[in-house]
Structures are given as C-alpha cells and as structure tokens.
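Morning, I've got a small favour to ask if you have a moment. I owe you a coffee for this, so here goes:
>
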Amino acid sequence: MHTGTQPEIRRLAAADVRDYRAIRLAALEQAPDAFGSVHGAEAARPVAAFAERLETSIVFGAYIGGRIAGVAGFKREDGLKDRHKGFVWGLYVQPGARGRGVGAALIGAVIAAAREVVEQLTLAVVRGNESAISLYRRAGFEIYGVEPRALKNPAGYADEVLMVLFLRGAPRAPRPAPAR
C-alpha cells in the first residue's frame, strides 16, 4: 500500500470538464476491456459532450496533489417505474494512485450522494476484474447475476457480473431457519 496524501474527492462540474475528459480517455486507453465505450469514439466527441455528461450524471473526481487521479459516476434512471434506481459507471483510478484508497473513497462518495436520491444502486463489472468486484463487495454491493456476452470486442465476448446495493427500503431475502 502506498503512503502519502489522502485523495481529495469532489463532485465534478462543467468547469472540471478538461480534467474529466482527460481521465475518461486515459481509462479507456489504459483499461479498454473494462468499459463499454471505446477510446476512439470518445476521443472524437467534442468537449461539450463531456460537459453534458457532468450535468446529467453525478460524477466525482479524486485529486492527489492537485491532479485528477480517479473518477466515478452514477446516473439516476429516469423512467416512472425505475427512478428509484441509479447505475454506477466509469470507476477508474490511475495506476500510480492505486493502493491509496482512491477507489474506496470514490465509491463511498457515489454511495453517499446516491442515498439522497435513489433507493438502490446497480453496476456491471467485467467478469475476471477481481479487484473491482472485491472493492464493490467491501462497499456492500452483492452479486445478483451475470450477463453472458455483455460486451463484444475484436478478441471476443466478455461477461459482466451484475451487482446491487440497497440503500433504503431494502428488500432482503429471508434467511433460512437454522437446522435443528
């Protein structure tokens, strides 16, 4: 584990669009199999498209020494019957900032903000990304399924592990009575 300054976590606004665009493109370039989007497509998008994403989602940035080192966001569903849910997306931490609690701080900020507006959070993570799955489990997310062949790239398909965190009004499966 690295030592050093704790990350500063803050919600990103339109004024932070250049930092957001830079970290998003770095994520897609450095971890292409972890995301549903691709670097080339997003790099071709205008800066205004990134600013719009910051206005339509809640996105947090992690700063270390004044430089963006990580990002995570969530978006509330907008349908009449699914507004109680939010979807976590885009969690990424620069390799040099890993092992400092940046990912945990980012997901903690997302969860805290989500508690104010939704009852549950869902997310999808590529099967095999055990460090991400472990991070989400430590934050309280539970696996509820796997979507086979969720993503397709030139090398083939990737399954996604589906996870949920109930924030309030949480249905819990009844626990079986202990055997006597």
In short: The chain has a mean pLDDT of 92. The beta strands are 8-11, 58-64, 67-76, 85-93, 120-126, 142-153, 156-166.
